UniProtKB/TrEMBL annotation:
GO terms for molecular function: transferase activity. PANTHER family: BLL5144 PROTEIN, GLYCOSYLTRANSFERASE. It holds the Pfam family Glyco_trans_1_4. Keywords: Transferase. The keyword Transferase applies. This is Glycosyltransferase.
Length: 386
């Protein structure tokens, strides 16, 4: 079976590109598949940089290109199309340029929904409704997503499948060796990584961390990742600078390390592997997926998070790891307890590592490929069978 991905793809630097690349690699590692059997229709906003003969271009802002691409796929030997959907990666308002592509397409489509809203509003509700209608199967990475989708649109729960977000395998290198490599030897490391923006909630977490430092004098907080491109375009580095100023006012400037660059996969895995506690203090409680939290849990790292939708699902057996947004006292108490109690932290890491075993990319890739194989040769869409 030939499976075509429609997605952003490296060298584009975004979460969907990274996800698709790893899912594809996971399939090739777990199954006897070649790159030619897993081609990619790569959405690109600006200059096109080809990365292989099996990577095909799709100009993001060219509406005619979506129709030409659909015709090319229809004429090809592709059996199933995997649409990796996020509103911002396709052209038009709310990414609606992908709709004519789906309407023209004659191949079965399995759509992975990276964003699902509990209560969507136009134009996102309309675009998502069309995507649901024109797909053969839907995949979500959060069990709540099945409830949300089936409540909002005329689709049977049987047409929506849950597959976990993938994660890399843990490193064998000792954490202390990695800490020495990153300049934090002998420290208790708290970590947040990802594209920096006010939506990360770090400004509300820093006061809690300042409380912890008083009781855990060897604690250090690493904030890893460059500023989100859209945030940087709108306001430059104002948010990063505000975090630096806040750390100075709180008297913890020497305990807060900001790594201001895009980190590649090996670096991310190293940072997560050396972290004593990973935190996602996000304010947006409707967030349905989080690749960063998936990686942390997948690698078995002790984690604290606000109770946004993805965290509630992934950590459903660990309610003590969910902390209310902005509750400085609760965050300080939970984090301090974890950092002070090495035995409890190691026991938690072992339990989370067991959860992460089912999230390895080869295992997730094999499950996704099996699901795609189920719909190969089928003509109907959700609109026709509900």
């Amino acid at each position: 079976m030939k499976l075509l991905f429609v997605s952003t793809f490296p060298p584009t630097k975004c979460g969907i590109a990274t996800y698709t690349s790893h899912l594809r690699e996971g399939m090739m590692r777990s199954l006897p598949l070649s790159p030619a059997e897993l081609p990619v229709l790569s959405v690109f906003p600006d200059a096109w940089t080809p990365s292989g003969p099996e990577i095909w271009p799709l100009p993001k802002h060219d509406p005619d290109a979506y129709l030409r691409a659909a015709d090319a796929v229809n004429a090809s030997d592709v059996d199933v199309v995997s649409l990796q959907h996020e509103f911002g990666i396709f052209g038009g308002e709310a990414g609606r340029m992908i709709i004519p592509f789906l309407e023209r397409l004659k191949k079965p489509v399995i759509t992975t929904l990276h964003t699902v809203f509990d209560r969507p509003t136009p134009p996102y509700s309309d675009v998502l409704g069309d995507i649901v209608r024109l797909s053969t199967r839907l995949v979500v990475m959060n069990r709540l997503g099945i409830e949300w989708i089936t409540r909002q649109y005329p689709v049977s729960p049987r047409a929506v499948r849950y597959l976990p977000h993938g994660a890399p395998a843990p490193l064998e290198a000792p954490a202390e060796a990695l800490k020495a490599k990153w300049g934090v030897a002998g420290r208790k490391v708290v970590l947040t990584f990802g594209l920096l923006s006010p939506g990360k909630g770090i400004d509300r977490f820093l006061p809690a961390f300042a409380r912890v430092v008083a009781d855990v004098p060897d604690a250090v907080y690493i904030i890893a990742g460059q500023t989100h491109p859209e945030v940087k375009k709108a306001e430059g580095e104002a948010y990063r600078e505000s975090l630096v100023a806040l750390a100075e006012r709180l008297g913890i400037a020497e305990r807060v390390l900001l790594i201001d660059r895009f980190l590649d996969e090996p670096e991310l895995v190293e940072l997560l592997s050396l972290a004593d506690v990973y935190v996602t203090p996000y304010p947006g409680l409707g967030q349905i997926t989080s690749g960063t939290l998936a990686y942390a849990v997948g690698l078995g790292r002790p984690t604290l998070s606000t109770p946004y939708a993805y965290a509630r699902d992934l950590l459903r057996d660990f309610p003590d790891l969910l902390v209310p947004y902005g509750d400085e006292v609760a965050w300080a108490e939970r984090l301090g307890r974890l950092l002070r109690d090495d035995a409890a932290r190691e026991a938690l890491a072992a339990r989370l590592k067991a959860v992460g075993a089912g999230m390895r990319w080869p295992r997730v890739g094999a499950r996704f490929y099996a699901l795609a194989s189920e719909i190969a040769g089928r003509k109907e869409r959700i609109a026709s069978h509900g």
